[in-house]
Amino acid sequence: MSKNKVFYLILLCLFISIVMKSFDVIRMIANVSCFVFVLLYVKEEIKTYTRKALAILSICFLFLVGFCTFIILKGQAVIKDHPFLTGWETIAIVLLIIVSINTCAFILRKVSNRLKRLKTDRL
To answer: For residue range 49-69, what is the model confidence (pLDDT) as tens digits?
Structure first.
């Protein structure tokens, strides 16, 4: 399957997941299939890593997901309690989500590049 098709399938699954808020089963199926499509999208890049590098990336990913979730939840609570942001809560929350996800993606990209460099240095 080409990367373009997989990319559009990922977007379709995310759209279905957002639209079907009241149907938990359909949302769960869309989320799981989105995860599968993401794995298909990065399949060629995953093949270049060793098992140790994949383990390190997986642990880093799980840690960053937990950290990002914590930052978003605590940030939302702080934003709602702060009087300066009255009327701007939605924009502030969207910016918080964008910044925290971009920061976690940046860290994961740096770790990934470092692991790739270590592999090429040993060869």
So the answer is: 888 888 888 899 889 989 988
How many Å apart are CA 44 and CA 6, to the nearest integer? 13
Co-location of 56 and 36 in the same domain: no
Q: Residue 113: which residues within 8 A CB-CB, separation 6 or more?
A: none
**Which residue, among 99, 80, 32, 68, has the nearest Cα to 9 in the 3D structure?**
32
CA angle 9, 2, 30 (to 5 degrees): 20
Same domain, residue pair 41 and 56? no
The predicted model scores a pTM of 0.67
Residues 41, 17: Cα–Cα separation, whole Å: 19
Query: Which among 14, 31, 47 is the end of a domain?
Result: 47
